[in-house]
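Design request, tokens follow.
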């Protein structure tokens, strides 16, 4: 009996030891997973911090509406208002991978530039140190973008901080080129730069809209205002060249009359061009769009939804043919069975298949008909049609309230993705008044004393970094869990406030087993569930 009792005790002790060992192993695994995730988060953050030390654009703190481009506010002459609403969708998503950016005063629309003026500007940019006291150009040109990240938020965060600056520089260098071509060049440049950065597996979809004032000459083909004006200038120049040649070929007059005739002839082209432009061009509001992936841009025209983007998905026949033609395959509607979108920025490891060349559009707006623009990630469009979205918010004139309505609608429809929605509401009366104002190309902007809003934001950030009063890197509060007060209301990151990095943690209601899954141990950062915004006044 004693021997049997001893055996039972030993067996019981052995079972208990095994249970304790398994429990300890599970705890160690859980701790390891959390440490690994936290380490990955830190690694991702460090990459941006290192880049931010050398690039002030990456150190720009978030603005109102969690704006990655910084603090951008409408001016007295603004003819549109922006509203944004985000939600992590915490029931389905552990992380928030969406980022967005917008500017109320994007790069001003320049007059047609000659080669000498481009060279002069390049020299000014190289030799002049721009001061934070420079005057801001109130262009009333809008820039709006949403980036939906995957495999972490690095690519989306980077694009939110950088893409608009790259686009501005591309337009400056090519003032007479069509904007759709420059959008394609910008996306290609972004892809090339992301390829040189860390976290090469990170990528994002992108939906970009650019709203510009342009003086346009009636033309049979759709081109940018700058090109149209340049063509008018060329026609005017051709006509006046005949006058110039006639004056130069005229018989010489006594004394200095020949020199005077020549000077008059040389002065004629510019006067004739100015008269030609004034008579032929009209000021118009032009909307350009570019997208890769499945985020959409919708224009409401007279209550009808007009899609200005293209869904680049594995389920699309044309995109499927392109992928297979490049040596890839579509498996379960995914590129090589991995990526749901066929075009994206980043994703360097699949760049031979997943191109960054965007789908672009160009639309001359009709003030009497065009009411607002919706830009949203696929989390909305998975459960809502284009027309349904337009119908839901057409009578909601506050763009923030309209954005929230669409996000709430998607949540009620059981969307399983992150949700980001941006609405740009047009001011019809303001647009009509501005159309009667001074033409955009009346004179070139003196860029030695005036800067674009994006330049101004970066300059101010650089100055604060020099003064030691700003964060090393401006990471989106929605992406790392910062930016919320105790009541849950959105609190924008202020210029002098550092972005707090929160350790990785298992969300409330999540099971430890989920955290142990290898695919969940990634560089994604923990985020708060809801991002609220308020309309800018």
């Amino acid at each position: 009996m004693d021997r049997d009792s001893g055996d039972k005790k030993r067996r019981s002790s052995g079972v208990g030891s095994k249970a304790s060992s398994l429990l300890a192993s599970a705890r160690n695994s859980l701790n390891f997973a959390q440490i690994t995730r936290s380490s990955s988060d830190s690694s991702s953050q460090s990459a941006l911090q290192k880049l931010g030390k050398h690039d002030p654009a990456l150190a720009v703190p978030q603005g109102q509406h969690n704006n990655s481009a910084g603090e951008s506010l409408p001016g007295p002459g603004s003819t549109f208002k922006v509203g944004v609403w985000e939600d992590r969708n915490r029931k389905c998503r552990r992380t928030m991978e969406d980022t967005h950016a917008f500017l109320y005063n994007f790069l001003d629309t320049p007059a047609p530039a000659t080669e000498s003026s481009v060279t002069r500007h390049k020299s000014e940019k190289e030799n002049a140190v721009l001061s934070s006291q420079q005057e801001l150009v109130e262009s009333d040109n809008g820039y709006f973008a949403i980036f939906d990240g995957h495999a972490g938020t690095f690519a989306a965060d980077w694009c939110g901080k950088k893409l608009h600056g790259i686009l501005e520089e591309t337009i400056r260098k090519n003032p007479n080129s069509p904007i759709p071509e420059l959008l394609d060049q910008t996306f290609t440049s972004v892809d090339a730069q992301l390829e040189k950065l860390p976290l090469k597996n990170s990528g994002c979809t992108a939906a970009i809209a650019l709203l510009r004032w342009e003086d346009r000459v009636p033309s049979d083909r759709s081109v940018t205002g700058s090109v149209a004006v340049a063509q008018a200038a060329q026609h005017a120049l051709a006509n006046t060249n005949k006058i110039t040649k006639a004056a130069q070929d005229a018989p010489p007059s006594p004394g200095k009359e020949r020199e005077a005739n020549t000077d008059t002839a040389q002065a004629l082209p510019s006067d004739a061009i100015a008269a030609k432009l004034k008579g032929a061009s009209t000021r118009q509001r032009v909307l350009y769009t570019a997208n890769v992936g499945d985020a959409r841009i919708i224009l409401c025209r007279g209550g009808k939804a007009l899609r200005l983007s293209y869904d680049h998905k594995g389920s699309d026949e044309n995109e499927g043919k392109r992928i297979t033609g490049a040596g890839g395959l579509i498996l379960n509607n995914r590129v090589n069975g991995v990526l749901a979108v066929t075009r994206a920025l980043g994703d360097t490891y699949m760049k031979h298949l997943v191109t960054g060349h965007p789908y672009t559009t160009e639309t001359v707006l009709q003030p009497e008909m065009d009411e607002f623009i919706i830009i949203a990630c696929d989390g909305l469009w998975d459960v809502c049609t284009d027309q349904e979205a337009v119908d839901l918010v057409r009578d909601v004139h506050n763009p923030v309230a309209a954005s929230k309505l669409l996000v709430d609608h998607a949540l009620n429809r059981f969307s399983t993705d992150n949700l980001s929605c941006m609405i740009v509401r047009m001011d019809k009366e303001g647009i009509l008044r501005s159309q009667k104002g001074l033409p955009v190309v009346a004179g070139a902007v003196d860029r030695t004393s005036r800067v674009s809003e994006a330049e101004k934001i970066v300059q101010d950030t650089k100055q604060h970094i020099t003064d030691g009063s700003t964060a090393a890197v401006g990471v989106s509060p929605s992406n790392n869990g910062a930016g919320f007060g105790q009541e849950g209301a959105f609190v924008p990151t202020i210029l002098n406030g550092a972005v707090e990095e929160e350790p990785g943690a298992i969300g409330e209601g999540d099971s430890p087993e989920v955290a142990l899954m290898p695919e969940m141990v990634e560089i994604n950062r923990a985020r708060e569930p809801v991002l609220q915004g308020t309309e800018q006044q």
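Comment from the thread starter after seeing the answer: thanks! The chain has a mean pLDDT of 70.
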